[in-house]
């Protein structure tokens, strides 16, 4: 498979060089462990840090969570079925047999629920431990996050399940890569603390984190993070105003810009994957280059409908020029030019 690794690294290198030619400056890369992207990145930017994508690192555990949840519900249904069969029994022999079956099903159901609950409780503490800032707005330092993750892995291993242990073994193996993204948090926070009082800075860090989480949640959770963002931002700016800071909004924007450099997931890459995936599935792997070009044209020329880039198309960000027409008009114009030539 050495030839495949070479091809993937070559493709990744070419892509990164093209970005470099378009005046995009790299600071770091967060990605999965794909040989193409990691090999190409190290070839182009050997001096810059690489961070492992948290979604991919912990995805196996959360897949198991869904599996154990389904198993627990199946056990509940089976226990109920055994109870119904016991209620329908009439003879003494059937009553005795079905009672034993029900008792066995009840025990298995209880064990499945307890197992799932312990697993879910441990995982529920994993996500907050991965945040850049704690509930007081102070940075989660690299060693602290590392210790927390390893502690949670230890709790999971106490369940003595080989599927869980396979995942925890991988996480232990990659723990330094998983926690490397927290080093910049310490540096950025220390730099900002020399310019802003700790109370205001901590409030702004909490506000930034809730703003960041609004892009990763939906429904009630999203509304919660939106409300928390506005509360902590208002509190921070009030604190800055009370200290005779005339440019509280400018200071908060500056802090947010600094914190926006923190990366721990390959969200942009996954967004593109999610955009292309339905077309790949419908084509059953037989997609043509023309179809890929059409998808690429649509994505690059369609303006974002939400988020901080609302109303801006990716091609506008790349070329730094404003589009003067809808993407469909540009498409028909491009097709007309291609037909005429």
Structure commentary:
The structure is a single chain. The protein is an all-alpha fold. It folds into four domains: 1-48, no CATH class; 54-178; 195-265; 267-340, no CATH class. Helix content is 73%, strand content 2%. The protein contains 16 helices and two strands. The chain has helices spanning 2-21, 35-44, 54-88, 92-124, 126-129, 142-157, 162-173, 175-179, 183-193, 198-214, 219-242, 248-259, 267-283, 289-301, 314-319, 327-340, and strands at residues 29-31, 50-52. A two-stranded parallel ribbon has the order 1-2. Helix 2 (35-44) links the parallel strand 1 (29-31) and strand 2. Helix 1 (2-21) packs across helix 2 and helix 10 (198-214) packs across helix 12 (248-259). The longest helix has 35 residues, at 54-88. The chain is globular, with a radius of gyration of 26 Å. Mean pLDDT is 85; it is low at 1-11.
Helix proportion range = over 70%
Strand % is under 5%
Low-confidence stretches: 1-11
Order of strands in the sheet with the most strands?
1-2
The helix/strand class is mainly alpha
Supply the number of helical segments: 16
The string of secondary-structure elements, in order, is HEHEHHHHHHHHHHHHHH
Q: Give the overall silhouette.
A: globular
Largest sheet: 2 strands, parallel
What distance lies between the first and last C-alpha atoms, to the nearest angstrom? 42 Å
Mean pLDDT figure: 85
The strand count comes to 2
Q: What count of structural domains?
A: 4
Evaluate the radius of gyration.
26 Å
Quick summary:
With 341 residues, this protein is mostly helical. It contains 16 helices and two strands.
């Amino acid at each position: 498979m050495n030839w495949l690794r070479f091809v993937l690294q070559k493709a990744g290198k070419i892509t990164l060089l093209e970005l470099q030619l378009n005046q995009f400056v790299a600071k770091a890369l967060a990605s999965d462990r794909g040989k193409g992207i990691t090999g190409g990145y190290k070839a182009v930017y050997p001096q810059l840090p690489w961070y492992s994508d948290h979604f991919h690192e912990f995805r196996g555990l959360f897949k198991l969570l869904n599996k154990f949840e389904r198993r627990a519900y199946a056990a509940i249904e089976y226990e109920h079925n055994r109870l119904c069969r016991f209620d329908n029994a009439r003879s003494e022999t059937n009553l005795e047999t079905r009672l034993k079956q029900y008792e066995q099903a009840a025990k298995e159901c209880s064990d499945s629920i307890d197992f799932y609950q312990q697993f879910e409780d441990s995982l529920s503490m994993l996500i907050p431990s991965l945040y850049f800032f704690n509930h007081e707005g102070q940075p989660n330092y690299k060693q602290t996050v590392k210790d927390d993750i390893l502690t949670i892995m230890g709790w999971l291993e106490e369940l003595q399940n080989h599927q869980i242990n396979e995942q925890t073994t991988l996480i232990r193996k990659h723990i330094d890569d998983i926690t490397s993204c927290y080093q910049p948090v310490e540096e950025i926070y220390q730099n900002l603390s020399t310019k802003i009082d700790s109370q205001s800075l901590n409030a702004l860090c909490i506000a930034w984190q809730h703003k960041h989480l609004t892009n990763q949640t939906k429904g009630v959770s999203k509304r919660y993070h939106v409300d928390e963002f506005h509360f902590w931002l208002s509190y921070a700016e009030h604190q800055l105003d009370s200290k005779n800071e005339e440019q509280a909004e400018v200071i908060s924007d500056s802090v947010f810009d600094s914190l926006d450099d923190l990366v721990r997931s390959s969200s942009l890459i996954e967004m593109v994957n999610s955009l292309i995936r339905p077309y790949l599935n419908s084509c059953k792997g037989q997609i043509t280059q023309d179809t890929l070009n059409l998808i690429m044209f649509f994505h690059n020329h369609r303006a974002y409908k939400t988020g901080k880039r609302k109303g801006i198309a990716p091609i506008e960000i790349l070329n730094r020029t404003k589009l003067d027409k809808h993407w469909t008009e540009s498409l028909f114009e491009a097709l007309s030019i291609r037909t005429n030539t």
